[in-house]
Amino acid sequence: FQAKSENKKTIWNTEEVPEGSEFDDTWDPREQPEYEILFKQHVGTEDVFFGMTGKDPSTACCEDMVIKIKLPETKYSDIMLDIQDKVLDLRTPKKKLLLHLPYPVNSKEGRARFLSEEEILEVTLRISREFDFINFA
């Protein structure tokens, strides 16, 4: 199998390079902050009491991904956040996080809020899925 490329001198195609690798800097001495990924789904009474929509507690039925990042001794103005479809890139003067997301997200529709008392950045992203027998709306 020989991959065809436009330029004969290239050693790989752009499709072979993972998204977000341009942000990866192995020489950056900043430490990675603690984080957790939570999944959220919208349920109504037809889901809870009757089970009519076929949703279950698995991540396959979740619509949103919530990423909570602990940023001690950080001000809101020092946070730089870049979100792409499969990558979250967070940088502060003391911390750096390059997170390859478990599911593709809609990078245009998301929310971030900084809880200054807990020193946590909470990023909520809409999961971008293909329609299937569970996610049909």
Automatic annotation (TrEMBL):
<protein>
    <submittedName>
        <fullName>PIHD3 protein</fullName>
    </submittedName>
</protein>
<feature type="region of interest" description="Disordered">
    <location>
        <begin position="1"/>
        <end position="28"/>
    </location>
</feature>
<dbReference type="GO" id="GO:0005737">
    <property type="term" value="C:cytoplasm"/>
</dbReference>
<dbReference type="GO" id="GO:0070286">
    <property type="term" value="P:axonemal dynein complex assembly"/>
</dbReference>
<comment type="similarity">
    <text>Belongs to the PIH1 family.</text>
</comment>
<dbReference type="GO" id="GO:0045505">
    <property type="term" value="F:dynein intermediate chain binding"/>
</dbReference>
<dbReference type="GO" id="GO:0051087">
    <property type="term" value="F:protein-folding chaperone binding"/>
</dbReference>
<feature type="domain" description="PIH1D1/2/3 CS-like">
    <location>
        <begin position="32"/>
        <end position="127"/>
    </location>
</feature>
<feature type="compositionally biased region" description="Acidic residues">
    <location>
        <begin position="16"/>
        <end position="26"/>
    </location>
</feature>
<dbReference type="GO" id="GO:0030317">
    <property type="term" value="P:flagellated sperm motility"/>
</dbReference>
<dbReference type="InterPro" id="IPR026697">
    <property type="entry name" value="DNAAF6"/>
</dbReference>
<dbReference type="Pfam" id="PF18201">
    <property type="entry name" value="PIH1_CS"/>
</dbReference>
<dbReference type="InterPro" id="IPR041442">
    <property type="entry name" value="PIH1D1/2/3_CS-like"/>
</dbReference>
